[in-house]
Structure prediction request, 354 residues.
Amino acid sequence: MTSVKILGAGSIGNHLAHGSRQQGWQVTLCDIDPDALDRTRDDIYPGRYGAWDESIRLCRPTDTEGERFDLVIIGTPPDSHIPLALAEIEQSRPKVMLIEKPLCPPDLQPCEALIELAASRNVRVLVGYNHRLTRHTEIARQWIAERLIGEPTTLRAMTREHWGGIFGAHPWLNGPADTYLGFTSRGGGALGEHSHAINIWQYVAELAGLGRIVEVSCLLDEVEADGAAYDRIAQLSVRTESGLLGTIVQDVVTRPAQKWLRLEGSDGYLEWQVSCDPDHDLVRLVRHDGEVREERVAKTRPDDFRGEIEHLGHVLADPAMTSPLDLSAGLDTMKVIVAALESAREGRLVRIQG
Ligand SMILES: NC(=O)c1ccc[n+]([C@@H]2O[C@H](COP(=O)([O-])OP(=O)(O)OC[C@H]3O[C@@H](n4cnc5c(N)ncnc54)[C@H](O)[C@@H]3O)[C@@H](O)[C@H]2O)c1
Prediction:
């Protein structure tokens, strides 16, 4: 049976533990904080999924010393991702590792050690941008491949979501300063926490053959309050290597949330939206000749992670397969985050090299 070790019994750790159990995998869920383990068993898991699952082993990370796992998931705060990933590659020797988004805080230097160690130990590392693998994204992928909207002219994406929802799901936190969320430098703020927008923009640009982002110009609304220091609005203008100009906006102030993308073309457009209402994702293609396609995909919160978990199963069976969650894609998103910070703070356009 596939064995999974999940580090971090917080919000994402519970989602991915549940998703792993749906696959019939053996789950070990670890946290350094005993309160997090108690909350998982008594509140979060039964509150979300109806009942605690006794087959899930809850423990401290030190309790698993010397054990090997097929899959390791790093679901801890971003500033711990790379150090934990390096340690887990050596200790647990997994076939596949999923690191939650964002890959790391805005400092690319430690990524090199991860790339080298993962290659030398033959561990396939993925980054958890789950929106790439939801059903409506799969439909968008198929429609983009049909080239129905003519020449792409621009691409826009946004993840604008007040973080009250996140704090609602973490009632034990008093506010942004209690967690990485309140610190851009630790991988929080709008740039890190809502980097789904940068990432889905990059995915659609790749699917449409528009290439990677090579130029970034960014304005940030940065705040320092109550001990926290974070960007609450990030507005990016970007250009790809093929010359396509687009925009990406991420913020922690908009409610209700807007998680939306639109690929504009000479003959029409494709629109993509997460949670167009609480129970549906949406994908729509409109051609200027009148043809309209629209799919509203019914979903629950666990469905947001279902495609990702199923994909992990496929990668476990064939670790060399191509993956939209590849480490290189997560790293490309980090490069844009780092360039956006540099651009905003130095007041200039930043080029991304190599
Ligand atoms: N893909 C998504 O949609 C999604 C959703 C939520 C969170 N996330 C990401 O998941 C990560 C965690 O977010 P969260 O909301 O679950 O945070 P959280 O605060 O709810 O949980 C993190 C847990 O990690 C534990 N932890 C810290 N260091 C540890 C260590 N060394 N070993 C074991 N456990 C450790 C903490 O005690 C805490 O319980 C972040 O990177 C976040 O961006 C992604």
